[in-house]
Amino acid sequence: MSPEYLVGRRLERVIASWHLHGTEAPSGPLDVWLIDSEGVSTCVTTGSDWCLISDTSAPYEGYDVAEYGHVEVAPISDQTPFADHLGETVLAVREEADPDDGRLALEITFASGRVRCDTWSGDLRLSSK
Predict the structure, then answer these.
(1) CA distance 64 to 19
(2) CA quadruple 2, 27, 89, 97: dihedral positive or negative?
(3) Phi, psi dihedral angles at 112 (to 5 degrees)
(4) Which residues of the chain carry a pLDDT beneath 50?
(5) CA-to-CA distance for 126 and 36, rounded, in angstroms?
(6) What pLDDT, on a 0 to 100 scale, did the predictor assign at position 3?
(7) Domains of the chain, residue spans
(8) According to the model, what pLDDT value does residue 72 have?
């Protein structure tokens, strides 16, 4: 699914999932959901083939992974670059893809800057530009 539908919508909330294990710093986020002014929830995550996935789906509930800790799903405060853009309208969306590997990156532009979503060794990476 092309995330172009985000253009012109305001980013209202961001929810993320994090893997927590003991006293270790959380890894992740594993998934990020962008909730827009239309009430649509856009999930950005990685696939088992390490490509970047974006689709419209609601956040799931956190879950326990036994001795490996648990996955927590909660609204973000300042843990991702999207926090700096809450309340802003999406001005543009740009995708990077490879014919063999699928979507590799997604860049979302706001008036105050951009957030780049990509993968590295199967992990979701978010950065500000």
Answers:
(1) 10
(2) negative
(3) -95, 5
(4) none
(5) 18
(6) 85
(7) 3-128
(8) 92
